[in-house]
Specification:
Rossmann fold; alpha/beta; Beta-Lactamase; 2 domains; six-stranded parallel beta sheet; ATP hydrolysis activity; four-stranded antiparallel beta sheet
């Protein structure tokens, strides 16, 4: 974490630890953060006052959120290894992930708080599918986190803001691109949720994420996105298309 008026801080097993030393000034914050942004993302930040992006350095990929607040510019930066962990290392039962990767259609939802490892679990599942199945995989992310290697499957990764105007625009196009497996980075609004459910109903294996703490809360959250007149329709879509809700929580070492 970089914040004007405070020393840089980082998390160890979920706890925030401040570095010893001088507080960050506005000028130092700009010197640290601006080189991480492309010209397009810097322009977006200067006009919208916040931006999500990624940055690659050597063997690490960083997910970055830059925003303005009362004291000036701030950034939250998460480091991700470029190596996608094997699904056996993730920590949920073999019979669950083995069933998921064998599926030909349905919606698999990973839920949990920010930083719970949802994207890592999905990346591990998709990577295993790519190793064993000759299929077409298309992801729609904001931003792209893990970079998949071409294996037995054919994989395309699209980033919102760079390769698609929005999640909903990208989804509409994606369904015309002959995918077998789809990853929608996050279901953020009613339109994206409806299109994601439709994709799961129409013969695609679809992965996505939602910020909820448990399976019951996930169903409630999805329905709450829609007016009461549409909730019965969405319930029917869920009954037909939903395969798994996996509520994930990281346990401190």
């Amino acid at each position: 974490h970089i914040k004007v008026g405070a020393p840089p801080a980082y998390r160890i097993d979920g706890d925030l630890v401040k570095l010893k030393g001088l507080s960050v000034t506005q000028e130092i914050a700009k010197q640290l953060i601006y080189p991480l942004l492309s010209d397009k993302n810097l322009s977006k930040f200067q006009s919208a006052y916040s931006v999500d992006c990624s940055y690659r350095l050597s063997s690490l990929q960083f997910r970055i959120n830059v925003f303005k607040e009362n004291d000036g510019i701030c950034a939250a930066i998460r480091a991700l290894s470029l190596d996608i962990p094997k699904i056996e290392q993730i920590g949920f039962p073999n019979d669950v992930w083995e069933d998921i990767i064998e599926r030909k259609q349905g919606l698999v939802l990973l839920t949990g708080i920010t930083g719970a490892g949802k994207s890592t679990t999905i990346a591990s599942l998709i990577d295993r599918i790519s190793e064993k199945t000759a299929c077409r995989i298309i992801t729609l992310e904001d931003p792209i986190e893990y970079i998949f290697q071409q294996k037995y499957s054919l994989i395309s990764q699209r980033e919102v803001g760079r390769d698609a105007g929005s999640f909903i625009e990208g989804l509409r196009a994606l369904l015309r691109e002959d995918p077998d497996v789809v990853f929608v980075g996050e279901m953020r609004d009613p339109e994206t949720i409806a299109m994601t459910l439709m994709a799961a109903e129409t013969g695609h294996l679809v992965f996505s994420t939602l910020h909820t703490r448990d399976a019951t809360g996930t169903i409630t959250r999805i329905l709450d996105y829609f007016p009461s007149g549409r909730q019965h329709e969405v319930q029917n879509q869920l009954s037909l298309g939903l395969a798994y809700i996996i509520a994930q929580k990281l346990i401190p070492k």
